[in-house]
Structure formats: structure tokens, C-alpha cells
From TrEMBL:
Main localization, broad class: Golgi
Cellular component terms (Gene Ontology): Golgi membrane
Organism: Salix brachista
Xref: PANTHER family: EXOSTOSIN HEPARAN SULFATE GLYCOSYLTRANSFERASE -RELATED, XYLOGLUCAN-SPECIFIC GALACTURONOSYLTRANSFERASE 1
Family per similarity comment: Belongs to the glycosyltransferase 47 family.
Keyword terms of this UniProt record: Glycosyltransferase, Golgi apparatus, Membrane, Signal-anchor, Transferase, Transmembrane, Transmembrane helix
GO terms of molecular function: glycosyltransferase activity
Protein's UniProt name: Exostosin GT47 domain-containing protein
Length: 568
């Protein structure tokens, strides 16, 4: 929060938000006057990366971006086995190269550890407050962290509160009424040169070394139909959000073709696909940034982009925020979201960076893409009525390279209880290959364990919700601090929370704890998930029409329209 507020350019005028900003600033000021800024930053970085942060003794190892490099083949997916398989190509020269770059915290040099923190902080989005971070020079770092350690609980609470304030701001844009009229709420979709979107899909064969993406882009990027699961089910790739969102917005009822009639501007740049094609190739960082820089040049000449400094513009990115925030001690990802011009627009991503107020997370795409209200109702009836034979299930893989991952503990607990209580589907052995297998497992289970993977969020959380399986979360950053428009603030309505620290220290028997939840409580949660949440968590197909429901897409666009119509 401190971070993002400080780097907002003062010249950007967001009159309508003045109130919120004032209250945020006051809040900020309170924090800043209480603790040194450097420590606050450290806490934010720590909180954010808590799923991959190791605290040993007094040293906090930050491996926020190295986690991706540690395990190239473990992206944030839960149920896509291609992303779960731990590095099959150990003798691949490029992999080795990456591992060398990675100053992994598991190496025992404390110099490396300190450097990591300094780098993470000094290259994080701090702009004009860089001097404060200099306190984190190598020599002083230990004492600074000792200091942080002392009041850590209090400070963590403050930093978490800051994240919650942002979510409150995001939620405040939502409307309780469903607008029937597009009057004064026009959406303009830029007609970008095809190199920024369609041409990237055209590179599907060469996108990643071990997967051919082409079939995922069939059917307006929903993928191949999955007849066995029923109407509206497709083999959708987890990174397909960009084209899915784009084809929906082209037929949005509020779309206008005249810029001067628009309130909201959508830039259909497929930034996630852009960077995906470079992730596993040995190219320079300049190559990775080329298209994003071209886009900035293209936008410079558009009047609407200039007129409000981008604050009424929105980008939809189908990958996690970190992939677009390259720090210069790593070569992973692009700098797209670090660019000055990209600070004002709203970015809708499958995973936000918690201290970036203009990052907003929206659901990962699932396999279900209804066409009509009837498709939704039919699915609701189907899953509310199924008998769930197992109490708990977990679909995923261990993280042997991440000693702090709680996955092994969970897998042990799951497989050591009587077999009908907990089912483990090992993604390492290819068991999660088929969407049917995972969906059927989740439809068969009361609770689905959703520990963080390589990043805090999981597509699998949405797969389990859509299957009517109650997610069990271990890290608030997996969902509670992510999806302000699609999940309610009271997370007890739809999930069970067990602190990962308790699991790590083996203080909790997860299956036992879940057995203690009564059938009545389970049913209540499930009814809330299926009837209240589910329609708003799925993306309809490209020609879908809903009367009764708002899907994930409509909720997102309506909320954005609500926000911009209050601006100015
Ligand atoms: C990589 O390992 C595989 C199997 O271990 C082996 O067949 C192949 O020759 C190795 N490639 C290189 C370049 O070392
Ligand atoms: C990557 O590219 C650079 C520059 O072209 C080259 O020097 C280096 O050897 C390459 N690394 C690998 C692992 O191919
Ligand atoms: C780590 O420390 C051990 C002994 O303490 C040493 O043998 C090893 O080389 C060190 N590794 C690195 C990467 O420095
Ligand atoms: C766009 O709208 C503006 C204002 O309503 C109008 O003056 C202008 O002629 C329109 N442009 C086109 C191409 O229709
Ligand atoms: C990181 O980037 C900044 C600005 O781009 C530059 O000033 C700094 O020297 C770079 N640091 C390293 C270690 O390359």
C-alpha cells in the first residue's frame, strides 16, 4: 500500500476517488509514523510471499520471484499436470542456466540471503522512497530484522489491515443494483494491431516447449468440448483468460464504437501470452519487453489514453502479477506492469500483487462455460444432489524443492487416514491430466484441500467451488485477499481456513478437524457456494446471454463501469 500510493504520479487526477485516497493516506500516515518504512516494506514482501518465505532464526529469506525459477515446470496451476511435473528435463542446459541465475535461498550463504532482501526491496516498486531502503544494506540488515522481529505480530496485523483496506475500496465500487441501461456507461474496445493479440495465439505451437497450445484456442479459446461432463464444459487452459474476456467484451451491450461516447477503455493486449512464449526460451530481457514497449508507443497517440493518464483504462492479464514485474536481479518475466504509464490503469489478473491497489484479481477460468441461465441451473441441480463419498480430497503434487511447502504434510495426513475419508490424486503421475478426473473427484468430495503452490492462488480453488466442494485454504492470499468482486468478505460462508503455520508445525490433524464440521454446516456452505457464488465464478461462452445471473465477466465489467461512471 505504502508502495503503490507513493509511486502514483501526483499529476494523475482521480477526483472521484479523492475521498478514498484521503482515508487511505490518513491510514498510511498512521502506519508510516509508527514503523520505519523499510520494515513495513519488508513485511509486505514477507506477507505476500508467505507461501514461499522461510523464516529461520532471525533471517527472512525472500524468494518471491526465485520460486518460479526453482521449479520451472511448476507454475501456479493446481490441476494442470503439465505445470505440476517437477522439472523432467534436469539435463536441459537452459534449465541449468536458470538455476545458476537464481540466488536460491536454500544455498547457505547468508550474503546471498541479504542480497536477496536488498534486491527485493530496492527493486520493488518504491520509486522516490529509495533512500529509506538503504537501511537494508548488507551490514545493517540483521539488526533491522531483529527489530522487525520484536513487534512482528503487531506489524503483520497492520500490514494485513492495509491489504484489507484496499479490498474494501475495491468492494465499494460494486453496485447493488443491476443496471439495465448503458446510458453514459459506454465501453470502448481498442482495435489493436493483431501482433498484440491474435498473432500471439497464432504462435500456439511454439508457445511452450512441452505443450501444443493450439487446441486450447479452439472454440473462442474455450478449448475442446468435454461431452462427458455435460453442456458448457470445455478443456480450457488456465492461461486463456485474455482471449476469453476479449471475445465476451466485443459483444457487451454497452460497447460503443465512438471513443468520445465511452467511459471505459479496454485494451485487448494478450500480455500473458506475450510473456508465456518467452518464459522458457533463452532470449534477452529486451526481447521480452519489446511488444509491451510497442504497445506503449501505440497508445501514446490515442487521445483517450492521454486525457485521463490511463486511469479509465483496463487491461486483462491471464497470468499472475509477478510475471509482469521483473526485478533486475532476475530475468523472469516482463517489466510491463512496472512501467510508469501502466500505474494508473486497472489491471485485472488471475493473481494480484497485494500492495498494488490497481491490481485486482478475478477468477481463474474453469472448465465450465455456460451459454444460458438454464445451463447454470442444470449444473447447480446436478452438483447439489450428488452423494459425496469422500470427506476430503487433494489433487496436487508435492514440492520437494520447497522445504517450507505444507503439501507433503497434507499428503501424509491424507494418505494415512482410512482410505474412504481422504483421497489423494497425485498430479505428478499424470493423474490430473483429464479435467474429468479432477472434476469427478471434487464432485465426490465434501472438502477440497487447497494449499498454495508456487504462488498463493490456485485455479483449483475455482474448480472445487464449481464442483460444489468446499475449499480448505491455508493462506489468506490464496483467495481472501484476491477476489473482492467475486468472493464475499466473510470467507466462512464458503471455505474453511486452517493456518498453514499450524500444519507446518504439525499441530493440526486436518482430516480430523474437517470431520468435526457438522453435516448441517457443510450443507449450508455448499448451498451458498452453489446458489450464490457459482454463477459469478464462471465465464460464459462467447455468445452467452444471461438474464437471471451475472457471470464472472459481467460482474467485472459492471463493477468497472460503476467505478468510472463515478469518476470526474
Ligand atoms: C538427458 O537425459 C536423458 C535421459 O536421462 C538422456 O537420454 C539424454 O541423452 C540427456 N541429454 C543430454 C543433452 O544430456
Ligand atoms: C543464451 O544466449 C546467450 C546469448 O546469445 C548465450 O551466450 C548463452 O550461451 C545462451 N545460453 C544457453 C544456455 O543456451
Ligand atoms: C554450504 O555449506 C556447506 C558446509 O557448511 C558447504 O560444504 C557447501 O559447499 C555450502 N554450499 C554453498 C552453495 O555454499
Ligand atoms: C463521436 O461522438 C461525438 C460526440 O457525440 C461526435 O461529435 C462525433 O461526430 C462522433 N464521431 C463519429 C465518427 O461518429
Ligand atoms: C536495476 O535497475 C536500475 C534502474 O533500471 C538500475 O539503476 C540499477 O543499476 C539496476 N541494478 C542492477 C543490479 O542491475
Amino acid at each position: 500500500m505504502a508502495v503503490s500510493m507513493n509511486r502514483r504520479k501526483p499529476k494523475s487526477s482521480k477526483n472521484s476517488e479523492t475521498k478514498e485516497h484521503c482515508c487511505c493516506s490518513a491510514f498510511l500516515f498512521k502506519i508510516l509514523s509508527r514503523i520505519p518504512l523499510g520494515i513495513l516494506l519488508l513485511i509486505l514482501v514477507y506477507l505476500w510471499s508467505s507461501s514461499s518465505t522461510i523464516i529461520s532464526g532471525k533471517i527472512v529469506h525472500i524468494c518471491v520471484s526465485s520460486r518460479k525459477l526453482n521449479n520451472l515446470y511448476c507454475l501456479s496451476a493446481g490441476t494442470q499436470p503439465n505445470f505440476e511435473i517437477p522439472i523432467p528435463l534436469t539435463n536441459n542446459s537452459f534449465t541449468r542456466n536458470i538455476e545458476n541465475i537464481d540466488a536460491s535461498p536454500s544455498t547457505n550463504s547468508s550474503v546471498t540471503d541479504d542480497k536477496e532482501i536488498v534486491n527485493a526491496l530496492s527493486s520493488s516498486s518504491i520509486g522516490n522512497i529509495k533512500e529509506d531502503v538503504d537501511i537494508f544494506r548488507k551490514d545493517s540488515i540483521r539488526t533491522e530484522i531483529d527489530g522487525a522481529d520484536k513487534n512482528r505480530n503487531e506489524e503483520i496485523a497492520i500490514a494485513k489491515k492495509a491489504v484489507k483496506e484496499q479490498l474494501q475500496l475495491h468492494r465499494s465500487w460494486m453496485s447493488s443494483t443491476n443496471h439495465a441501461s448503458c446510458e453514459g456507461r459506454g465501453v470502448y474496445v481498442y482495435d489493436l494491431p493483431s501482433k498484440f493479440n491474435k498473432d500471439l495465439m497464432g504462435q500456439c505451437e511454439d508457445m511452450m516447449p512441452w505443450t501444443n497450445f493450439c487446441e486450447y484456442f479452439n472454440n473462442d479459446a474455450l478449448g475442446e468440448p468435454l461431452a462427458s461432463l455435460g453442456k458448457g464444459w470445455y478443456h480450457t487452459h488456465q492461461y486463456s483468460l485474455e482471449p476469453i474476456f476479449h471475445s465476451r467484451i466485443l459483444s457487451h451491450p454497452c460497447r460503443v464504437y465512438n471513443e468520445s461516447e465511452a467511459k471505459l477503455f479496454y485494451v485487448p493486449y494478450y500480455g500473458g501470452l506475450d510473456i508465456l512464449r518467452w518464459h522458457f526460451k533463452n532470449v534477452s530481457v529486451d526481447v521480452k519487453d519489446t511488444l509491451a514497449m510497442d504497445l506503449m508507443k501505440w497508445l501514446e497517440h490515442r487521445k483517450p489514453w492521454v486525457q485521463n493518464s490511463g486511469s479509465d483504462h483496463v487491461f486483462v492479464l491471464g497470468k499472475i502479477s509477478w510475471d509482469f514485474r521483473r526485478r533486475n536481479y532476475t530475468s523472469w518475466g516482463t517489466r510491463f506492469l512496472e512501467l510508469e504509464q501502466m500505474q494508473n490503469p486497472i489491471k485485472l489478473l488471475i493473481e494480484r500483487q497485494p500492495w498494488e491497489v490497481n491490481d485486482i484479481a478475478i477468477p481463474h477460468p474453469t472448465f465450465f462455460h455456460p451459454h444460458s441461465d438454464d445451463d447454470i441451473v442444470a449444473w447447480q441441480q446436478k452438483i447439489i444432489g450428488t452423494t459425496r463419498k469422500s470427506l476430503v480430497s487433494f489433487a496436487g503434487a508435492e514440492r520437494p524443492n520447497q522445504p517450507q511447502s505444507i503439501r507433503s504434510v497434507l499428503i501424509n495426513q491424507c494418505t494415512s487416514t482410512s482410505s474412504d475419508k481422504c483421497q489423494f490424486l497425485d498430479c505428478k503421475s499424470g493423474g490430473c491430466n483429464q479435467p474429468e478426473t479432477v472434476t469427478e473427484l471434487f464432485m465426490d468430495s465434501e472438502f477440497c484441500l487447497q494449499p498454495p503452490g508456487d504462488s498463493p492462488t490456485r485455479k483449483s480453488v475455482f474448480d472445487s467451488l464449481v464442483s460444489g466442494c468446499i475449499p480448505v485454504l491455508f493462506d489468506p492470499f490464496t483467495a481472501y485477499y484476491q477476489y473482492p468482486w467475486h468472493l464475499p468478505e466473510d470467507h466462512r460462508k464458503y471455505s474453511v481456513f486452517i493456518d498453514q503455520e499450524e500444519v507446518r508445525q504439525m499441530k493440526v490433524d486436518v482430516v480430523g478437524r474437517l470431520s468435526g464440521i457438522s453435516a448441517r454446516e457443510r450443507d449450508e456452505m455448499r448451498r451458498f457456494i452453489v446458489y450464490e457464488l457459482l454463477p459469478g465464478l464462471v465465464y460464459g461462452d462467447s455468445s452467452s446471454r444471461f438474464e437471471k445471473f451475472q457471470d464472472a465477466f459481467s460482474i467485472s465489467v459492471n463493477t468497472l463501469l460503476q467505478r468510472v461512471s463515478r469518476m470526474q
